[in-house]
Structures are given as C-alpha cells and as structure tokens.
C-alpha cells in the first residue's frame, strides 16, 4: 500500500480532493483542512523525516486519501442523520401539501433567518464598507498594511460565523473549519494567499448583498404576516364591537351589516399566512445555496 501513497503533502491533498469529488463542497473543505493540519503537524513533530516518510508512517492510523474520503462520507451521513429534525409525513393531496408547511421545521428556521437577516445584513454591510474605506484611507500610512490584513482575516472569520447561522437555521451544510494556512510558509506568502483566494472577495460581495436582501426578507415577512393576521382578526373585531376603530383611509374595512364578507376575510388571511410560510421555506433553500456558492472556497471543489 505504501508504494501507492503520495510522496508529498500537496499530492496527498490533491488525491484526497479528487477522492471527494461529488460530495458536499463544505464537507470537502473540512476534510482537506483536517488532513493538511494533521500531516503538517506530524511533519513538524518529526523534523528528521521527509514528507514521504511522514505520509507512510501515518497511513496506518490516518489512512490513504481514498480511505479518508470514505470515512468522511460515512461520518457525514451518520452526523446528518442524527442532527436532522424528523421530517413530516409526506402528503399527497394539494391541501395537505399546502397546510403541511406548518409542521415542517425548515419553515420556522427560514422564517427566523429572514427576520434576523436585516440585523446581520446591516452589520455585514457596515463592516465591509467601514473596513474597506478605512483600508483605503490608511493605505498611505504605515498602519495601513496591518489594518488591511486584520480586516481581511476578520472578514474570513465572519464568513465562518455566517456559515454556522446558515447551517443551523436553513439546514444547508456549511464549512466548520477555515482553509488551512501553513504556518511554515513565509508571512508574505500566507498574506498573499488570503488576497488571491476568490472566497475572500466572494465573502465581501455576499456581505454587501446581505443588506438589501435582509431588508427585503424582513419587510416581506413582517408585512405579509401582519396583513394576514389582520385579515383574520378583522371580523372578530367587528363581532366584539371594535369594528369602528379598524379603518383604512378613513373608511371602515367591513360593513357590520355585510357579514358574508367575514368568512372571505378569514379565508384570505389564512391563505396569505400559509403562502408566506411557503415563501419563507423557498427563500431559505435558495439563500442557503447562495451562501454556499459565495462562502465555500473553490479549492474544495
């Protein structure tokens, strides 16, 4: 088996990357990070050995690239199965699928994410705009370079934080570890890798887009749910004597003598509330795919 092992760490990682083809990119990024961290730690602990000797020595405990890929796939299936919320029973009828959104846990995760997105989007947008502005303004000073490096590094950490929020609320698998940075490389080379990594700029673009997206998500959810709840509550307001205080542009929305409109209002409100829940679940799925496309490194593909 040793004769078939890669002789360098980059070759090992390249074979592992190819062995992980077809699996989730976030899983691949985590597996590549773990493998590189482990191999380089072993290499540092045994300075008298070559990369080939270290790889051969750890092959029995850590495994060859194909074996590691299989282990990660199997572990991911077990973890996701254990963490996944019970799915509601499938419904065949149209009404069952329409009202079944109420018992789907993904609905509420997406709904809460859309409400939270305005706050996180405002923070992310302010972070990028402020950081970029200060970076440009301080570029002529000696503190400009360390500030830019700190800003880029902190932005990459924020990408991991957003990834955890997306995974918990939207159910989209996101990286749990960053890209590996070899501490043995020269500092300038490690800094250059941050600036040439497409994920750095994809993260900034994602953070800028989160402000308009967050405002849109929050507005749609609040307005739609409020309007639906109001349409359901209006007939009961009239029934209990509050109808005269529920007006739109000076006109009563319901004529107490036209009680036939009350069921229509309740029905319209219920349909609007459930349609909003369906929309929230759909937006959650689409936003999860957007986050993965922009926050997961292309090196994991």
Structure in words:
The structure is a single chain. This protein has ten helices and two strands, in the order H-H-H-H-H-H-H-H-H-E-E-H. The protein has 301 residues and is mainly alpha-helical. The chain has a two-stranded antiparallel sheet. Strand 1 and strand 2 (251-252) form a beta hairpin. The two termini are 26 Å apart. The model has no long low-confidence stretch (mean pLDDT 82).
Key features of this structure:
single chain, 301 residues, mainly alpha, two-stranded antiparallel sheet, 10 helices, 2 strands, flat
Topology:
Layout: H1 9-19, H2 25-45, H3 51-58, H4 65-83, H5 94-99, H6 105-137, H7 144-170, H8 187-196, H9 198-239, E1 247-248, E2 251-252, H10 261-295
Helix pairs in contact: 1-2, 1-4, 6-7, 6-9, 6-10, 7-9, 7-10, 9-10
Question: Strand fraction band?
Answer: under 5%
Largest sheet: 2 strands, antiparallel
| Strand line-up in the sheet with most strands | 1-2
Chain-averaged pLDDT = 82
Put simply, the count of helices is 10
State the secondary-structure class: mainly alpha
Using the alpha-carbon principal axes, give the shape: flat
Q: Radius of gyration from the CA trace?
A: 26 Å
Q: Into which percent range does the helicity of residues fall?
A: over 70%
Order of helices and strands: HHHHHHHHHEEH
Unreliable parts: none
